[in-house]
Amino acid sequence: MRAGTLRSLAAAAIISAVMAAAPAAAALRVVATTTDLAALTAAVGGELVTVESIVPPATDAEAFEARPGDVDKLRQAGLIVRIGLGYDYWLDALVNRVGDKRLMRGGEAYLDASTGIPLLELRGQSVVNEAGHAHGSANPHYWLDPNNAVIVTAAIAEALVRIAPELRPGIIANRERFLRELEARRERWSEALAPFAGAKLVAYHNTWPYFARRFRLDIIDFIEPKPGVAPSPAHLARLIATSRSQQVRAILHEPYEPDDASRLLATKLGVPMLVLATSVDSVPGTGDYLALFDYNIATLAKALGAPRH
Asked: How far is CA 171 from CA 146, 156, 157, in A?
């Protein structure tokens, strides 16, 4: 073999070794305020992004108190994604501490996922009550309607492509794959709850209007007289009387709320108390967005289909 050929082969081997040893391009770092938005971002971004949430699973984001390490998370973020509508109002103070205009409202690395959502319970102003619960311009629990995931993932995909245009083909493919699976499961979820359309329920907190509208359930009242305020004996007595007259079928309870009042009401009415997943990973078996609905739909269908006491 000629010396020139040997040198060429050696050079090619060196180049191949260097390329193999070189680290892959760093994934785009995304910080979401909640596990739900983190899960939807992961579904769209796949291996092209790294995602973490600020609010831990099974935590009330409306009453969340930020930790020192959360500022460090934001400093390293290429994109932040928030629920909006006052739900994660504490994010603004964190972003201001970071001081990066890209992460502030209107910045290229800022995404309010509520934009474009058909909102429920519109209000004229935003307030934070004495219990620390935020009440924005509308009910903020829009991710609990799976149809809204179509809108949210479109916004996430657009934001990711805006920041990293080279990721566009992978982002589009990932989102299309997620939407195909979402559509298949939405049909199963609707079929599972169709026999219980109009079923009357009581919830501890006003978490479920989007979910109830999508699956044609009727939440008649709440155990909390106001968000973050424990019920009085008089309120519970009225609620028991109303629930009996309207034949309430179950009590819906959030995994992070105190459950004494919910258990009392369920016992008095002879109906099940159902702890449903308000967010991804808030109960076992809900580790991604689709699994959250699998769990909630199965839990509801089983309880509502059981013989009544």
From this structure: 20, 9, 6
Nearest 10 degrees: Cα torsion 10, 12, 14, 15? 160
| Domains in the chain, CATH or no CATH each | 28-186 (3.40.50.1980), 190-305 (3.40.50.1980)
Choose from 61-75, 134-148, 275-289 the range with maximum mean pLDDT. Answer: 275-289
Task: Give the number of C-alpha atoms closer than 13 A to the C-alpha of residue 218, restricted to the C-beta side.
Answer: 11
Spatial distance between the Cα atoms of 120 and 138, rounded to a whole number of angstroms: 6
Which two tokens mark 167? 């990721």
Query: Which DSSP letter does residue 307 get?
Result: P
Range with the lowest mean pLDDT among 18-22, 180-184, 226-230? 18-22
Triad 99, 135, 120: Cα angle to 5°: 115
Contact 53, 35 (CB under 8 A): yes
State what percent of residues in the chain have pLDDT above 70: 87
Residue 220 tokens read as: 């008649």
